[in-house]
Every structure is written in C-alpha cells, then in structure tokens.
Amino acid sequence: MKIIRAPLRISLFGGGTDLDPFCSKYGSTIISFAINRYMYLTWNPRPTGGCRLSYSTVEELDTLKDAEHTLVRETARTFGIDEPCTLTIVSDVPKGTGLGSSSALAVCLVKLARGSLASGLGAVARAAKIESACSRAGWQDYLPAVFGRFNTYHIPGGWVLPAEGFLTLLPSHLSDLISTHGLLLYTGATRKADDVLPSWQKSESQLHQIKALADEVAEHINGLSPRDLGIYLNLTWELKRSIPGVTTPVLNRQYALAMIKGALGGKLCGAGSGGCWFFLVPPDARERVKQALGLREIPFQIAEKGVETWEL
C-alpha cells in the first residue's frame, strides 16, 4: 500500500501572473504558503485484476488509461501507473475552493507514477504537463504542493521552469504572523477555474500591476507589519475584482463587511468567483468578522513539508 499526500495552498500575492502567455513573457513573483489541508492518494495492488478508481464517484476499469477522471487518465497514459490496482482520491476540502486541490492531486499522481524521479522542479514540470493536458493552469499551485512552507517564488520570463535558487524561504516571524492573523473562510460557492481564467489571460494591464505589487512586497516583506500586508492585500484585491468574472455583488458585500468589522485586508483564493476568502484579521477582531460574515472557518496552519509518501 502506498499513501501520498500533498498540501493545499494560499497564495497572497502575484496570483494570475503565473499564467502563460504573461509568465513566459514577463516572469512572475508569487508569495504563498502551503497549509495543513491535503489531497490524499492511496494505491493498493488488486489481486483480482482490473482497476477500481474511487473519488466522488467509483469507476471499475480494465485499465486506468480509460478512466473518466482526466488527471488519472493522463497520468496513466503519460507516465504509467502500476496495475491492477485500487486507487483512492480523498481531499480535505471540496473541489473549486481556490486552494489548488487539482494541482496538488497532479503532484500526488506524478509522485505515485515516478517515485523519486518526481521531486523538486521535476515534480513541478511533470505535474504541469499532466494538468495542462486537461485544463488551464499556472505554475503557482504546484510549488507549495512540492516544496511546502511559506516562500517567495521568482519565475523569470522566457523560461519554461524557474532556475534553481528561485525559492526564498520566508522567516519564522512571518509564519507566526499568518498563524495569529490569518482567517480562512469558505464561501460555500464552488467554481471551475477554467470558467474564470480566460478573463485573467486577457487582463494584461491588471497583471502588470499585480506583479509590480508582488515585487514590492517581496522586496520589503521582512519588515512589513500586519497592517502593511493588509494594505497590499487590499490593493491587490482592488485590481483582481476589476477582472471580469472574478467577483459577484455578494462577494463584494462580504469583503466590505469584513473590512468594516476589523479585517486589515484580504483576498479571494484562486481564480475567483467563489471558493474561500483569506483575511488578515487582528486577534481581537477575529470573532467579530466571522460572526458578521456567517461563513464556515477552515482552521489551518502552515505546512512545513510538501508532498510526502508512505509505503506500508
């Protein structure tokens, strides 16, 4: 039996600039952290033959190469998965939350298929290859799933993958800040990123401004206070909400109410249009914001490790 898990993520700054063609032309700066909410994949040999694939539905198959699940099918066809087997996919959160669950699953699948060959940037490249065959995706979601922690990533323009040294681990006092001020709330509305991402790719002006803010934060982040980070989050949100399809009147009201009740700044995780809110909130305003919005909290901590594998 093999058990593989990869952490989900919250991206604070730079989201959207990791999409091509923008990223390949101009590069991207991403500031994000992995959280201790996970995508899990288990593999068991199946002595009776055939394959059983279990996720929100169950598929009984002769081979995983014929699976309806697109990521599993592409992994089996591209890299191969040992068969016959029982393959089970479980997530801590629903799909469409904006926390990078599909990309975390892609990382789990390439780790299953390629083992030790799927590590570091190799795992990022292989996961991106699988997911790009199924849907639109940027680079940022694979990075926390592989590397974990709270990092700044600098992806240079003109490169298919960033060079070694592209990752900067942020100091512990910033992780402590996220632990004391971070609030993750589930809106209850899920969405397909593919429905929103085309608008991002057409919004080059906003993407340049989002990248400039991310670069500025990255340069000064070690000395920024919670209020400073909140101001930058708010500036980024104002840019993000101007992209068609990213927000709704309901979401706009939720953000405004959170700010009135004491939030310092926030963002909608992922491509937008639903999913999860992340807010920076002083501890004494935390319950006030939660009660005002009436949304379910997803407790989290920063995950120190990326994708992990156990064999039993």
Description of the structure:
This protein is an alpha+beta fold and 312 residues long. The chain has 2 domains: 2-170 and 303-311, 2-Layer Sandwich (Ribosomal Protein S5, domain 2); 173-297, GHMP kinase, C-terminal domain (Alpha-Beta Plaits), CATH 3.30.70. Helix content is 38%, strand content 24%. The chain has helices at residues 22-26, 70-78, 101-114, 120-132, 142-147, 172-181, 193-201, 204-220, 226-240, 249-260, 286-293; strands spanning 2-13, 28-45, 51-54, 58-61, 85-91, 150-155, 167-169, 182-186, 265-268, 276-280, 296-297, 308-311. The strands form 2 sheets. Strands 1, 2, 3, 4, 5, 6, 7 and 12 form an 8-stranded mixed beta sheet that branches. The chain has a 4-stranded antiparallel beta sheet with strand order 9-10-8-11. Helix 8 (204-220) packs antiparallel against helix 9. The longest helix has 17 residues, at 204-220. The termini are close together. The model has no long low-confidence stretch (mean pLDDT 92).
